[in-house]
Design goal:
mainly alpha, disordered N terminus, 16 helices, ABC transporter involved in vitamin B12 uptake, BtuC, two-stranded antiparallel ribbon
Length: about 375
């Protein structure tokens, strides 16, 4: 005679003794299982293929669409000529198509891609480090510090003397803001995450006041104040290959460091005590990740001004699609961030032709509603990393 299937579960009685409760499993019921690693890996590969294709498409659209209509075949020919090692830009400058495509539009599109990738990865780092899906590179004052450095360069006239002063002072401002917040939050070689966040909020307010003061002082010089205001909105106009090569080293180093620390971010998700028990130098990892996020954000602000919401929206959306493992999340956020910012720049150039909208306004139109959506979900208690 066959026995009915039974499953045993150990339950604690009110008394110190332990009793075993047997119950018949429900017919047709299956235990809920999380997606396996192979499922996440498959999703990642599919996401990678789709996002790469979309990035190439929007980049081609970015160099094709503009106030001057250029046939697609002419655009491809200009790109092929530009990437040839022996081709001289000076020789091609006499060709108006080559000038528009390779010397004006292409640097802007490449700049949008690398800045979007940097902000996406910086946001993923911050959300993983603080274990908060609402965290972003702006949260500890790094973006505001970089913006203040750029404003100082423009208000003092240094940016007119050399194009290098603005990115140098912007990056220095970002690092200084990080150093101040980190010094406030660190006691006895330990950094309190809550204090770091609160210090960032206070520093953002202080830097905002100083920035507003500098705008007020320079208001009599209308051109300077207008330049400051437009730069604070974030934009990619008038970017050249010199700007691209100026920003590539810092962003490449920042991305490499972020990918190298992806395992530490995954371990830190289990808590600092667990990470320490698994051999992770928690304080060192925090310092490296914060400095790296500052490097990526500061370089981005130096190149394109203060562009918000990319570091908030992109990592969270990507995490929902491919899972929280940073080994996959970081490169996916880089690709998605690049695609998103190139697309936003296309909208900024075409919505009000022949005038341009600052790209930071476009990203805010997308990012602000998404941020409110996250806040509503978090208030209901159904938003997790």
């Amino acid at each position: 005679m066959s026995e009915r299937p039974k499953s045993a579960a150990v339950a604690l009685d009110r008394k110190p003794s332990i009793r075993v409760v047997t119950e018949e499993p429900r017919r047709g019921s299956q235990p809920q299982q999380r997606p396996s690693r192979s499922v996440h890996a498959t999703r990642f590969l599919i996401f990678l293929a789709i996002t790469t294709a979309l990035l190439l498409i929007v980049m081609l659209l970015g160099v094709t669409i503009g106030s001057v209509q250029i046939p697609f075949s002419s655009v491809l020919r200009a790109i092929v000529e530009g990437v040839q090692p022996l081709h001289s830009s000076a020789a091609g400058a006499s060709d108006p198509t080559f000038t528009i495509v390779w010397l004006l539009r292409m640097p802007r599109v490449v700049m949008a891609a690398i800045v979007g990738a940097a902000l996406g990865v910086a946001g993923a780092q911050m959300q993983g480090l603080f274990q908060n899906p609402l965290a972003s590179p702006d949260i500890i004052g790094v973006s505001a510090g970089g913006a203040l450095g750029g404003v100082i360069a423009m208000a003092t006239g240094l940016s007119t003397r050399s194009m290098f002063y603005l990115p140098i002072l912007s990056f220095a401002g970002a690092l200084l803001a990080l150093a101040i917040v980190y010094a406030i939050a660190t006691r006895r070689a330990r950094t309190a995450t809550a204090t770091l966040l609160l210090g960032g909020v206070a520093l953002n307010a202080l830097i905002g006041a100083i920035t507003s003061f500098l705008i007020t002082v320079t208001w009599v010089r209308y051109e300077v104040s207008q330049q400051i205001i437009f730069w604070l909105m974030g934009g990619l106009a008038n970017r050249t290959w010199t700007h691209v090569w100026l920003g590539v080293p810092g962003i490449v180093v920042g991305l490499a460091v972020a990918f190298a620390y992806s395992r530490d971010l995954d371990i830190l998700a289990g808590g600092e005590e667990v990470a320490s028990s698994l051999g992770v130098d928690v304080e060192r990892a925090k310092r490296v990740l914060l400095i790296d996020a500052a490097l990526l954000t500061g370089t981005s602000v130096a190149l394109a001004g203060a562009i918000g919401f990319v570091g908030l929206v992109i990592p969270h959306a990507v995490r929902l699609l491919i899972g929280p493992a940073h080994k996959r999340l970081l490169p996916a956020s880089a690709l998605a961030g690049a695609t998103f910012l190139v697309f936003a720049d296309i909208l900024a150039r075409t919505l009000d032709r022949p005038e341009e909208i600052q790209v930071g306004i476009i990203t805010a139109f997308f990012g602000a509603p998404f941020f409110l959506y996250l806040l509503v979900r978090r208030s209901r208690g159904d938003l997790y990393l």
